[in-house]
Amino acid sequence: xxxxxxxxxxxxxxxxxxxxxxxxxxxxxxxxxxxxxxxxxxxxxxxxxxxxxxxxxxxxxxxxxxxxxxxxxxxxxxxxxxxx
Length: 84
Prior knowledge:
single chain, SH3 type barrels, alpha+beta
């Protein structure tokens, strides 16, 4: 299960700049969104690239997959930016 409390040094996914590499720390989402994120492979500790994070949906590259998340969901995902 994804961690619900904020971790020190983390930021939300909507604050991660385009082109940055991030590690997922946890989420403050409910059970439905948490299950959906886990099904997409977004588990604690996984690293991914933020391809686009402008004013619309947040686009991620996770391995060979491309994922798109709405800004509401991205606000509930806590990440560590590894490099901008």
